[in-house]
Amino acid sequence: MSTFVCAHDNDFSAIAAGGIMGITIKEIAELCGVSQGTVDRALNHRPGISEKTKKKILAVASERNYRPDPVARSLARGRTMTIGVVLFDLYNRSFSQLMNAIEMSSREAGYYVHLMLTNKDPDNEKKCIEHLIHRKVDGIILFPINEGPEFDQYLRMLNIPIVTICNKVSDHWRYVGIDDRQAMKDAMDYVCRKGYERFIYVCPPLAYKGRTNIFTQEERFAGCLQGLRDNGITEQPIVIDTPAYVEALSGIDFRSAPKTAVVCSCDIYALEVMNHLKERGLRIPEDVGVIGFDNIDVLKYVAPRLTTVEYAVEQFGERAVRDIVGQIETGGSEHIPLLPYRIIAGSSI
Known about the structure:
Elements: H1 9-18, H2 25-32, H3 36-43, H4 51-63, H5 70-77, E1 82-87, H6 93-108, E2 112-117, H7 122-134, E3 139-142, H8 149-158, E4 162-165, E5 174-176, H9 180-192, E6 198-202, H10 215-230, E7 238-240, H11 245-250, E8 260-264, H12 267-279, E9 288-291, E10 308-311, H13 313-330, E11 341-344
Parallel strand pairs: 1-2, 1-3, 3-4, 4-5, 6-7, 6-8, 8-9
Antiparallel strand pairs: 10-11
Keywords: DNA-binding, Transcription, Transcription regulation
InterPro entries: HTH_LacI, LacI/GalR-like_sensor, Lambda_DNA-bd_dom_sf, Peripla_BP_I
Protein name: LacI family transcriptional regulator
């Protein structure tokens, strides 16, 4: 995934006049009467050069339209200045926001991004990773679908910096996320305080438990169960773990049942649930309460305002990039704490 900037006609004229690459380091050295090494130090702001000489070199470079050769710089550094990102898909709006943050943060750090989508296919995930390895990316930000010791060992054999995000593989790999279990427990505490007696938990990914990596979704479900227990709710929630979750809801009676809350593990499910309930003539929250998770940006257009769990998705991307760049450039990186979250009280509960 690369970013291209279109130039106006005047910009192209300027480039044509100065040449695509402009002046070279060798030519700057000849004009300034110094060595190419001195020019390199000045252009990269390294020590070992007087301020007067540095100013002269930078002035000549600017006047003569000097532009660094990215290929040459990559060869000199032993890096391609690219980061691979392996992501499930972009259907979930929070993933789109996250990907945007990763691309912007990478560009600010001087790196370009290669994006690969797995479509939640474990075999395709390995193909995506291997493609990035062949492209010689400097590091990978991975939203893993695979799990277990065999996959963990596979990643170790690649000998490349990796940051996992949203789903964990093992404690060996740096991880960016929140405490999903505690966040959902806090959400259930909030719902239970509203007096709900029956609970329906909507999470289609639970159908893939044991087949793919759904760490985040498993943690949220565990938090839901813990929250119910801690609030003295002994009846187990009705769990809907099928992709046809709206159809599954259609057979549930809400009018004559105890006060019911539909708890959704992601906002995208909650929005579909709300549409379904409205089509049935049910009022939210008077007849049925609904809560989501993620606080995706489109919620501002939805009525009633969805109660949800918010975390700074852009910060996920920024932290992941900061860590992977640290691993690439210094071999180490700072500790990544779990990121904060909060309950956003809407009017759907």
